Amino acid sequence: MGMFLTTSDAGRAVSVRSAARTCAALSAVVMVAAAGAVRADSIESASGFDVAVTGRIVSDCRLSGGGTIDLGELTGNEVVAADFSLRCNVPFDISFESARGGLAHVTKPRGEGPFAGTLGYTLNVAVPTLAPRDGMMSAAYSSADLMARKTLSSGDAIAAGGGRLQIRTQRPQGAGLLAGEYVEVLNVTLQPRV
Q1: Helix (H, G, I), strand (E, B), or coil: what is residue 17?
Q2: Biggest alpha carbon distance in the chain?
Q3: Which of 38, 55, 160, 164 places its Cα 20 to 30 Å from the Cα of 98?
Q4: Cα R_g (the chain), whole angstroms
Q5: Taking a C-beta distance cutoff of 8 angstroms, is the pair 121, 143 a contact?
């Protein structure tokens, strides 16, 4: 019984023979290279060899954003949001600390007469994370609590690329707020955990 090859089958047969020759030649080159490596390292093996491959990725953590947020006329219950960039390829801690414990009058933070000199707020934090599971780090802090540094930990996760801060002012106490300018500095710090 004979075998008949069509034009395309003949091309495949030539291609298969060429591939077989190429594999045999490549095998011979690998064996020669392996033999040279074996002699250099004095490792002998009848059936094969191991190749150790190593690499390194340097930890990289960066936080950017910030600036000035103008709440306008302070009547209470104002809401502003600010996005920030966060790049961290290792687990990390992110900390928040208030310089004044609220929006404070520039010259009279304790107020005067029946008028308050500080307006409290709530800070909501949301930071998406990756690995071992995608998730969201989140917390809510009062400005008074932020007088002592508060830290949010990613656990074993890394940053997914950014985060969001939301500030909601509280209602003024007593007769309201003393007229004037109010300021607050919120310090955000990133600490990689390597």
Answers
A1: helix
A2: 114
A3: 160
A4: 33
A5: yes
